[in-house]
Amino acid sequence: MTFLLSEDKALRDLLKGMTVTDQKSDASGTATRNVGVYFGQPDQEVRQQAYPYITIDMIDISEDIQRSMRGLVKPVYMADPNTMPDGSSYDSATNDWYIHWPIPVNIDYQITTYARQPRHDRELLAQIMYNKIPLRFAVLEVDDNTSQGTIRRIDVLDIAKRDVTEQGKRLFVNSFTVRVSSEIAPELYKSAYKALEVVVTGTEGTFVQGQTQPPFTAVDSFTITR
Amino acid sequence: MSKLKHIHSALHQASLDTTRVLGAHLRSETRASGWPHEITRRMRVSYDGDSFHVHSHPGHSAQVADLEYGTPSTQPTAAIRRFSNRTHEAESFLTGRMHQLLGKSL
User: Which of A112, A106, A127, A122 lies closest to A160 in space, CA to CA?
Assistant: First the structure.
Protein backbone atom coordinates (compact mmCIF):
# COMPACT_ATOMS: atom_id res chain seq x y z
CA MET A 1 0.00 0.00 0.00
CA THR A 2 1.50 3.31 -1.05
CA PHE A 3 -0.24 6.41 0.19
CA LEU A 4 -1.94 8.37 -2.64
CA LEU A 5 -0.51 6.27 -5.47
CA SER A 6 -2.65 3.31 -4.40
CA GLU A 7 -5.79 5.42 -4.07
CA ASP A 8 -5.17 7.09 -7.45
CA LYS A 9 -4.75 3.74 -9.14
CA ALA A 10 -7.77 2.22 -7.40
CA LEU A 11 -10.01 5.13 -8.40
CA ARG A 12 -8.85 4.99 -12.00
CA ASP A 13 -9.37 1.22 -12.06
CA LEU A 14 -12.87 1.71 -10.65
CA LEU A 15 -13.80 4.15 -13.42
CA LYS A 16 -12.14 2.25 -16.24
CA GLY A 17 -14.14 -0.02 -18.48
CA MET A 18 -17.19 2.19 -18.99
CA THR A 19 -18.75 2.24 -22.45
CA VAL A 20 -21.42 4.33 -24.16
CA THR A 21 -23.57 3.70 -27.20
CA ASP A 22 -25.13 5.84 -29.93
CA GLN A 23 -26.61 5.53 -33.42
CA LYS A 24 -23.31 6.57 -35.00
CA SER A 25 -21.32 3.77 -33.43
CA ASP A 26 -23.07 1.36 -35.83
CA ALA A 27 -26.39 0.99 -37.68
CA SER A 28 -28.02 -1.09 -34.95
CA GLY A 29 -26.94 1.32 -32.22
CA THR A 30 -25.49 -1.50 -30.15
CA ALA A 31 -21.77 -1.06 -30.75
CA THR A 32 -19.98 0.62 -27.90
CA ARG A 33 -17.41 3.36 -27.45
CA ASN A 34 -14.87 3.07 -24.67
CA VAL A 35 -14.64 5.92 -22.19
CA GLY A 36 -11.07 6.99 -21.41
CA VAL A 37 -9.99 7.89 -17.88
CA TYR A 38 -7.14 10.38 -17.39
CA PHE A 39 -5.41 12.10 -14.49
CA GLY A 40 -5.95 15.76 -15.34
CA GLN A 41 -6.72 16.91 -18.87
CA PRO A 42 -5.13 14.95 -21.69
CA ASP A 43 -3.48 16.78 -24.59
CA GLN A 44 -5.94 18.61 -26.80
CA GLU A 45 -5.21 16.33 -29.77
CA VAL A 46 -6.16 13.28 -27.69
CA ARG A 47 -9.26 14.99 -26.31
CA GLN A 48 -10.69 15.92 -29.69
CA GLN A 49 -10.71 12.29 -30.78
CA ALA A 50 -11.58 10.69 -27.49
CA TYR A 51 -14.98 12.08 -26.40
CA PRO A 52 -16.49 11.04 -24.08
CA TYR A 53 -13.80 10.85 -21.44
CA ILE A 54 -13.30 11.24 -17.69
CA THR A 55 -10.66 13.15 -15.74
CA ILE A 56 -9.55 12.66 -12.14
CA ASP A 57 -8.10 15.54 -10.13
CA MET A 58 -7.00 15.28 -6.53
CA ILE A 59 -8.21 18.51 -4.91
CA ASP A 60 -7.57 18.17 -1.19
CA ILE A 61 -6.10 16.09 1.62
CA SER A 62 -7.38 16.80 5.11
CA GLU A 63 -7.01 15.08 8.46
CA ASP A 64 -10.15 13.29 9.63
CA ILE A 65 -10.22 14.21 13.31
CA GLN A 66 -13.29 12.09 14.00
CA ARG A 67 -11.42 8.88 13.13
CA SER A 68 -8.28 9.83 15.04
CA MET A 69 -7.04 7.51 17.76
CA ARG A 70 -3.93 7.33 19.92
CA GLY A 71 -2.21 4.14 20.87
CA LEU A 72 -0.25 1.26 19.44
CA VAL A 73 -1.43 -1.14 16.80
CA LYS A 74 -0.23 -3.76 14.34
CA PRO A 75 -2.44 -3.41 11.26
CA VAL A 76 -2.85 -6.76 9.51
CA TYR A 77 -2.85 -5.10 6.09
CA MET A 78 0.65 -3.68 6.51
CA ALA A 79 3.66 -5.69 5.39
CA ASP A 80 6.30 -6.87 7.85
CA PRO A 81 9.39 -4.64 7.85
CA ASN A 82 12.63 -5.85 6.26
CA THR A 83 14.82 -4.59 9.05
CA MET A 84 14.25 -3.80 12.69
CA PRO A 85 14.93 -0.31 14.12
CA ASP A 86 18.32 -1.51 15.46
CA GLY A 87 19.38 -2.47 11.93
CA SER A 88 19.05 -6.23 12.33
CA SER A 89 17.04 -8.30 9.87
CA TYR A 90 13.40 -8.89 10.67
CA ASP A 91 12.67 -12.49 11.54
CA SER A 92 8.99 -13.26 12.07
CA ALA A 93 9.89 -16.26 14.27
CA THR A 94 11.50 -14.15 16.95
CA ASN A 95 10.47 -10.57 16.18
CA ASP A 96 7.22 -8.70 16.15
CA TRP A 97 6.40 -5.06 15.48
CA TYR A 98 3.86 -2.35 16.16
CA ILE A 99 3.34 1.28 15.21
CA HIS A 100 1.50 4.30 16.51
CA TRP A 101 -2.03 4.44 15.14
CA PRO A 102 -1.94 5.76 11.56
CA ILE A 103 -3.26 9.29 11.09
CA PRO A 104 -6.64 9.11 9.31
CA VAL A 105 -7.02 11.45 6.36
CA ASN A 106 -9.62 12.14 3.71
CA ILE A 107 -8.54 12.48 0.10
CA ASP A 108 -10.95 14.52 -2.00
CA TYR A 109 -11.07 13.95 -5.73
CA GLN A 110 -12.95 15.71 -8.48
CA ILE A 111 -14.14 13.32 -11.17
CA THR A 112 -15.23 15.18 -14.29
CA THR A 113 -17.01 13.65 -17.27
CA TYR A 114 -16.89 15.27 -20.72
CA ALA A 115 -19.22 14.30 -23.58
CA ARG A 116 -20.25 15.85 -26.87
CA GLN A 117 -23.58 14.03 -27.06
CA PRO A 118 -26.38 14.32 -24.49
CA ARG A 119 -26.96 10.55 -24.69
CA HIS A 120 -23.33 9.85 -23.77
CA ASP A 121 -23.62 12.35 -20.94
CA ARG A 122 -26.67 10.61 -19.48
CA GLU A 123 -25.14 7.17 -19.90
CA LEU A 124 -22.03 8.26 -18.03
CA LEU A 125 -24.09 9.85 -15.24
CA ALA A 126 -26.18 6.72 -14.90
CA GLN A 127 -23.23 4.32 -14.89
CA ILE A 128 -21.25 6.31 -12.34
CA MET A 129 -24.19 6.84 -9.99
CA TYR A 130 -25.69 3.38 -10.40
CA ASN A 131 -22.67 1.08 -10.74
CA LYS A 132 -19.43 2.82 -9.92
CA ILE A 133 -20.00 5.31 -7.10
CA PRO A 134 -23.53 5.02 -5.70
CA LEU A 135 -24.64 7.65 -3.21
CA ARG A 136 -24.79 5.06 -0.44
CA PHE A 137 -22.29 2.37 0.53
CA ALA A 138 -19.81 2.98 -2.28
CA VAL A 139 -16.47 1.28 -1.70
CA LEU A 140 -13.03 1.52 -3.24
CA GLU A 141 -10.86 -1.59 -3.29
CA VAL A 142 -7.29 -0.45 -2.86
CA ASP A 143 -4.51 -2.88 -3.74
CA ASP A 144 -6.95 -5.73 -4.16
CA ASN A 145 -5.88 -9.34 -4.57
CA THR A 146 -2.99 -8.91 -2.17
CA SER A 147 -2.70 -9.57 1.54
CA GLN A 148 -2.24 -5.83 1.99
CA GLY A 149 -5.46 -4.89 0.20
CA THR A 150 -7.97 -2.64 1.96
CA ILE A 151 -11.54 -1.57 1.28
CA ARG A 152 -12.18 2.14 1.70
CA ARG A 153 -15.22 4.36 2.03
CA ILE A 154 -15.92 6.53 -0.96
CA ASP A 155 -18.51 9.23 -0.34
CA VAL A 156 -20.10 11.47 -2.94
CA LEU A 157 -19.94 15.03 -1.60
CA ASP A 158 -21.29 16.94 -4.57
CA ILE A 159 -22.48 16.57 -8.13
CA ALA A 160 -22.37 19.71 -10.29
CA LYS A 161 -23.72 20.02 -13.85
CA ARG A 162 -21.36 22.28 -15.78
CA ASP A 163 -22.41 22.14 -19.44
CA VAL A 164 -20.59 24.67 -21.63
CA THR A 165 -20.30 25.70 -25.25
CA GLU A 166 -16.74 25.26 -26.48
CA GLN A 167 -15.70 26.52 -29.92
CA GLY A 168 -19.35 26.66 -30.96
CA LYS A 169 -19.99 23.04 -29.90
CA ARG A 170 -21.94 21.80 -26.92
CA LEU A 171 -19.88 20.11 -24.26
CA PHE A 172 -21.73 18.21 -21.52
CA VAL A 173 -19.75 18.29 -18.29
CA ASN A 174 -20.44 16.78 -14.86
CA SER A 175 -18.23 17.30 -11.83
CA PHE A 176 -18.38 14.78 -9.00
CA THR A 177 -16.62 15.56 -5.75
CA VAL A 178 -15.86 12.35 -3.91
CA ARG A 179 -14.07 11.60 -0.67
CA VAL A 180 -11.88 8.54 -0.15
CA SER A 181 -10.90 7.51 3.36
CA SER A 182 -7.21 6.88 3.84
CA GLU A 183 -4.48 7.07 6.45
CA ILE A 184 -0.86 8.07 6.82
CA ALA A 185 1.09 5.44 8.72
CA PRO A 186 4.29 6.30 10.57
CA GLU A 187 7.31 4.99 8.71
CA LEU A 188 9.16 3.91 11.82
CA TYR A 189 8.22 0.48 13.07
CA LYS A 190 8.73 -0.26 16.72
CA SER A 191 10.13 -3.65 17.58
CA ALA A 192 8.66 -6.07 20.07
CA TYR A 193 10.04 -9.34 21.42
CA LYS A 194 7.84 -12.35 21.08
CA ALA A 195 7.23 -14.58 24.11
CA LEU A 196 8.44 -17.87 22.68
CA GLU A 197 7.97 -20.12 25.69
CA VAL A 198 5.68 -19.61 28.65
CA VAL A 199 5.81 -22.00 31.61
CA VAL A 200 2.74 -22.09 33.80
CA THR A 201 2.70 -23.84 37.15
CA GLY A 202 -0.39 -24.72 39.16
CA THR A 203 -1.04 -26.48 42.42
CA GLU A 204 -2.79 -29.77 41.99
CA GLY A 205 -6.05 -30.00 43.83
CA THR A 206 -6.38 -26.27 44.34
CA PHE A 207 -9.38 -24.75 42.66
CA VAL A 208 -10.58 -21.26 42.05
CA GLN A 209 -13.58 -19.80 43.87
CA GLY A 210 -14.83 -23.07 45.23
CA GLN A 211 -14.91 -24.88 41.86
CA THR A 212 -14.09 -28.54 42.15
CA GLN A 213 -13.49 -29.45 38.50
CA PRO A 214 -11.02 -28.29 35.85
CA PRO A 215 -10.50 -25.93 34.05
CA PHE A 216 -10.57 -23.86 37.21
CA THR A 217 -7.22 -25.03 38.56
CA ALA A 218 -5.49 -22.18 40.32
CA VAL A 219 -2.29 -20.85 38.77
CA ASP A 220 0.59 -20.27 41.14
CA SER A 221 2.82 -18.48 38.69
CA PHE A 222 3.84 -18.24 35.08
CA THR A 223 7.24 -17.54 33.70
CA ILE A 224 8.35 -16.38 30.27
CA THR A 225 11.51 -18.41 29.78
CA ARG A 226 12.57 -16.97 26.41
CA MET B 1 -36.16 36.73 28.61
CA SER B 2 -36.08 32.97 29.07
CA LYS B 3 -32.80 31.08 29.15
CA LEU B 4 -33.62 29.39 25.85
CA LYS B 5 -34.15 32.74 24.17
CA HIS B 6 -30.84 33.92 25.63
CA ILE B 7 -29.09 30.89 24.14
CA HIS B 8 -30.76 31.39 20.72
CA SER B 9 -29.85 35.03 20.73
CA ALA B 10 -26.24 34.29 21.71
CA LEU B 11 -25.94 31.60 19.04
CA HIS B 12 -27.29 33.96 16.40
CA GLN B 13 -24.96 36.77 17.43
CA ALA B 14 -21.95 34.43 17.67
CA SER B 15 -22.73 33.02 14.21
CA LEU B 16 -22.92 36.52 12.74
CA ASP B 17 -19.56 37.35 14.34
CA THR B 18 -18.06 34.11 13.00
CA THR B 19 -18.79 35.13 9.40
CA ARG B 20 -15.87 37.59 9.64
CA VAL B 21 -13.50 34.79 10.65
CA LEU B 22 -14.85 32.52 7.92
CA GLY B 23 -14.66 35.30 5.32
CA ALA B 24 -11.00 35.97 6.13
CA HIS B 25 -10.25 32.26 5.96
CA LEU B 26 -12.08 31.96 2.62
CA ARG B 27 -10.13 34.85 1.09
CA SER B 28 -6.90 33.40 2.41
CA GLU B 29 -7.71 30.03 0.81
CA THR B 30 -8.67 31.53 -2.57
CA ARG B 31 -5.56 33.74 -2.52
CA ALA B 32 -3.39 30.70 -1.77
CA SER B 33 -5.00 28.92 -4.74
CA GLY B 34 -3.93 31.74 -7.04
CA TRP B 35 -7.34 33.21 -7.70
CA PRO B 36 -7.24 36.77 -9.10
CA HIS B 37 -7.11 39.49 -6.45
CA GLU B 38 -10.18 41.23 -7.89
CA ILE B 39 -12.28 38.09 -7.31
CA THR B 40 -10.73 37.20 -3.96
CA ARG B 41 -11.22 40.56 -2.30
CA ARG B 42 -14.96 40.54 -3.01
CA MET B 43 -15.64 37.09 -1.58
CA ARG B 44 -17.41 36.81 1.75
CA VAL B 45 -19.39 34.47 3.98
CA SER B 46 -22.88 35.24 5.26
CA TYR B 47 -25.16 33.70 7.88
CA ASP B 48 -28.91 33.56 7.24
CA GLY B 49 -30.05 32.30 10.63
CA ASP B 50 -29.78 28.70 9.51
CA SER B 51 -26.49 28.13 7.69
CA PHE B 52 -23.37 29.79 6.34
CA HIS B 53 -23.08 30.70 2.65
CA VAL B 54 -20.16 31.66 0.43
CA HIS B 55 -20.72 34.68 -1.81
CA SER B 56 -18.77 36.23 -4.63
CA HIS B 57 -19.51 39.37 -6.60
CA PRO B 58 -22.42 38.57 -9.00
CA GLY B 59 -20.26 39.61 -11.94
CA HIS B 60 -17.65 36.99 -11.00
CA SER B 61 -19.97 33.97 -10.65
CA ALA B 62 -18.93 32.28 -13.89
CA GLN B 63 -15.23 32.89 -13.22
CA VAL B 64 -15.54 31.54 -9.68
CA ALA B 65 -17.20 28.36 -10.96
CA ASP B 66 -14.48 27.93 -13.60
CA LEU B 67 -11.73 28.40 -11.02
CA GLU B 68 -13.39 26.06 -8.55
CA TYR B 69 -14.30 23.22 -10.95
CA GLY B 70 -11.87 23.86 -13.81
CA THR B 71 -12.68 24.07 -17.51
CA PRO B 72 -11.84 21.79 -20.45
CA SER B 73 -8.50 23.61 -20.63
CA THR B 74 -7.73 24.37 -16.97
CA GLN B 75 -7.41 22.26 -13.84
CA PRO B 76 -9.80 22.78 -10.89
CA THR B 77 -8.33 24.73 -7.97
CA ALA B 78 -11.16 23.89 -5.51
CA ALA B 79 -10.46 26.68 -3.01
CA ILE B 80 -14.05 26.82 -1.72
CA ARG B 81 -14.21 23.08 -1.16
CA ARG B 82 -10.85 23.14 0.65
CA PHE B 83 -12.13 26.04 2.74
CA SER B 84 -15.21 24.06 3.75
CA ASN B 85 -12.97 21.17 4.92
CA ARG B 86 -11.14 23.40 7.38
CA THR B 87 -13.60 25.02 9.74
CA HIS B 88 -12.02 24.03 13.09
CA GLU B 89 -10.71 27.52 13.73
CA ALA B 90 -14.10 29.10 13.05
CA GLU B 91 -15.84 26.47 15.20
CA SER B 92 -13.51 27.30 18.08
CA PHE B 93 -14.22 30.99 17.60
CA LEU B 94 -17.97 30.36 17.54
CA THR B 95 -17.82 28.31 20.74
CA GLY B 96 -15.68 30.89 22.49
CA ARG B 97 -17.97 33.72 21.42
CA MET B 98 -20.99 31.75 22.66
CA HIS B 99 -19.36 31.32 26.07
CA GLN B 100 -18.55 35.01 26.15
CA LEU B 101 -22.10 36.08 25.28
CA LEU B 102 -23.79 33.57 27.57
CA GLY B 103 -21.46 34.48 30.42
CA LYS B 104 -22.69 38.05 30.14
CA SER B 105 -26.40 37.36 29.78
CA LEU B 106 -27.09 34.35 32.04
Answer: A112
Contact A108 B65 (CB under 8 A): no
Helices B3-32 and B88-105, axial angle in degrees (round to 10): 150
The values of phi and psi at residue A146, to 5°, are -130, 165
| Range(s) of the domain holding residue A202 | 194-226
Q: Say if the Cβ atoms of A59 and B76 lie within 8 Å.
A: yes
- The 3-state DSSP class for residue B92 equals helix
Note the ipTM here: 0.86
Q: Is residue A83 located within the same domain as residue A162?
A: yes
Q: Mind listing the pLDDT tens digit of every residue in chain B (106 residues)? A: 688 888 899 999 999 999 999 999 999 999 999 999 999 999 999 999 999 999 999 999 999 999 999 988 889 999 999 999 999 899 999 999 999 988 865 5
Chain B interface includes A151 (CB < 8 A) = no
Asked if B85 has any chain A CB less than 8 Å from its own CB, the reply is yes
User: Considering its fold, how many domains does chain A have in total?
Assistant: 2
State whether A79 and A172 are in the same domain. yes
